[in-house]
Amino acid sequence: MTAVLTYCRAGFENDAANELMQQASDRGVFGYVNAKKGNGYVLFESYQSEQVEELIEILPIEHLIFSRQWFASKLHLQNLNLQDRVGDIIEAISQDEHFPQCGNVRVEHPDTDSGKELSKFCRKFTVPLRQSLRKHGLLTDKPEKSPNELFVFFTDNQTCFVGYAKTDNCSPLPHGILRLKAAADAPSRSSLKLEEAFQVFIPKIKHEDRLRSGMKAVDLGACPGGWTYQLVRRGMFVQAIDNGLIDESLMQTGQVEHFQVDGFVYEPKKKNVYWLVCDMVEKPMRVSELMADWVAKEWCVEAMFNLKLPMKRRYESLMECLDFIREYLKANGCRKFSLRAKHLYHDREEVTVHIRRHRVG
Ligand SMILES: C[S@@+](CC[C@H](N)C(=O)[O-])C[C@H]1O[C@@H](n2cnc3c(N)ncnc32)[C@H](O)[C@@H]1O
Q: Given strand 3-7, what is the order of strands in its sheet?
């Protein structure tokens, strides 16, 4: 049976499943999910297989918050012959007359402790599998000759899901994960969260324009300074708001003003702030209200912030926050804006949200 298989952070399977069900049913695709806590992936099965294949085309992957990657899984192969796993996979795909020809193959595994043990094997397995797929005409000679990517997702060394995704509607990253290396001089590891957020939410070709040197930024809950560091290294001038202590080397750049005040009452003197970033550990609705208010009052153009997820009803609570932001912005005259959220690789019990106010006219 065809299913949509999505990858997520281990422990967030229910959230990924709830979201997938909701997004699918919003598009008239009804089904049920198979999600086991700790697996690092979720299966969405539909009563009509062809609808599942349609879903990976009509639902943009960037609309999914908790899923990092996905594909339409057409085969679930178990008890593979350890002496010839390539042969077993080739035979199974060849027997499925509806399996589309693909341009590229990716061999992956869940992002879990047991999944990671398969990482070396998956890497080594890719080359002989690719060669054999080409030999059997299941892969085109060049990737760009097909709009599809073939996925082989191993859950143990004898079991895999095999399917395909649309190249233009799946993550180009291995495992859907953006791996980043912490800079040695960054004041905290959280710095990577903002780096990832900028890379995920702002298209690379827009960086020069929207992450420009000389811009003014406000960082609420800035200490010890990991997020401020990201803004400073891009040449921005930062008002860092936090009662705590900020990294001294950041202050020495001359680009940072530190205000030891409450982030919920801080108001910038000059209304020339482009970026508002916020990593305060607070109730998600309270942060949502603050962020929506800054954008509605035009105190900033773009906002990037974290919403801490509660212990229970994580997906529902997040939806309530995002709905609130949407409604608040509309009710307060913000006619054109974009709002996106993602459970980033460097996020744990939180989700990163991006709001951008667009110029009208
Ligand atoms: C997770 S840390 C921020 C880490 C920071 N983004 C970094 O990369 O170094 C949260 C910070 O929010 C600050 N904070 C919490 N509530 C605040 C408030 N109401 N006003 C200002 N800062 C606040 C805390 O003092 C703490 O330093």
A: 31-35, 41-46, 3-7, 69-77, 159-166, 148-156, 104-108
